[in-house]
């Protein structure tokens, strides 16, 4: 099964979560956007609440592009990350947003449950356009029986990282640093993003070399 398009207007997106500045969803500081809805059902998916297409909230591409612009100025982000959920399921809006932010010099990273070959074989021009606007693609379904143990930001070892432009290198040392988990308290709500693995470092856990109990 390849990427499918859902009936959402080109200038609107159905989103599950937005984090204006994170270092836990790809290289550098990024504006991360979780899409609501995914046609796949990977056992062990870490965002099951983002799978139904009727959840989340609707947002204009224009409004999100404005938030990205603001984050570029105030938070120094270098790009956006589209994940979810499945970004290619809302390819029209996703590609429009990607095109707009790229025109301002930002990079675009996409996490998709479909493989690069499946995306390239799509008959949907918007899906192909999204791919054309993507600098970094992490592809393939999450396989919980094959957890990734080396590469940062990657869920399972079958998933590949494709540098589709020369903006990033997949042999950069950033891919081998420890995963991180970020916690934010906003409006009385605790928001979590990043990598919920025991190997992750973050607010409650320091990097291995910094833990006294494990130092020699
Ligand atoms: S593709 Fe991603 S969001 Fe969709 S079910 Fe698989 S892990 Fe979950």
Judged by helices, strands and strand pairing, the structural class is alpha/beta
Mean pLDDT across every amino acid position = 88
Question: Total helix count?
Answer: 4
Number of strands: 10
Q: Quick one: CATH class?
A: Alpha Beta
Percent range for β-strand residues: 25-35%
Largest β-sheet summary:
7 strands, mixed
* N-to-C series of helices and strands: EEEHEHEHHEEEEE
Shape: globular
Bound molecules: iron/sulfur cluster
Number of domains: 1
Measured distance between first and last alpha carbons: 51 Å
CATH architecture heading: Alpha-Beta Barrel
Unreliable stretches covering 5 or more consecutive residues = 199-216
* CATH homologous superfamily placement: Aldolase class I
* CATH topological fold name: TIM Barrel
Description:
This protein has 216 residues and is of the alpha/beta class. It has a single domain (12-180), classed as TIM Barrel. It has four helices and ten strands, in the order βββαβαβααβββββ. The chain has helices at 61-75, 91-103, 116-120, 125-132; strands at 12-22, 30-35, 57-60, 79-84, 107-111, 136-139, 160-163, 180-186, 189-194, 201-202. The chain has a seven-stranded mixed sheet with strand order 3-1-2-4-5-6-7. The protein has a three-stranded mixed sheet with strand order 9-8-10, with no helix packed on it. The radius of gyration is 17 Å and the shape is globular. Residues 199-216 have low confidence and may be disordered. The structure holds iron/sulfur cluster (SF4). Residues 38, 40-42, 45, 47, 51, 84-86, 113, 141-142 line the site of iron/sulfur cluster.
């Amino acid at each position: 099964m390849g990427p499918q398009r859902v009936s959402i207007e080109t200038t609107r997106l159905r989103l599950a979560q937005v984090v204006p500045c994170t270092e836990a969803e790809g290289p550098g500081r990024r504006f991360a956007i979780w899409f609501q809805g995914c046609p796949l059902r990977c056992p062990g998916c870490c965002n099951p609440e983002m799978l139904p297409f009727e959840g989340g909230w609707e947002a204009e591409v224009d409004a999100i592009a404005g938030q990205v612009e603001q984050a570029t100025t105030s938070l120094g982000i270098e790009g956006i990350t589209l994940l979810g959920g499945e970004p290619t399921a809302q390819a029209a809006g996703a590609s429009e947003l990607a095109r707009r932010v790229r025109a301002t010099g930002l990079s675009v990273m996409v996490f998709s449950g479909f493989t690069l070959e499946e995306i390239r074989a799509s008959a949907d021009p918007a899906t192909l356009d999204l791919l054309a606007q993507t600098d970094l693609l992490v592809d393939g379904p999450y396989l919980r029986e094959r957890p990734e143990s080396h590469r940062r930001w990657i869920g399972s070892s079958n998933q590949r990282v494709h540098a589709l432009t020369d903006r990033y290198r997949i042999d950069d040392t950033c891919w081998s640093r420890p995963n991180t988990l970020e916690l934010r308290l906003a409006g009385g709500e605790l928001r979590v993003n990043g990598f919920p693995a025991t190997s992750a470092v973050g607010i409650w856990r320091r990097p291995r070399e910094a833990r006294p109990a494990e130092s020699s």
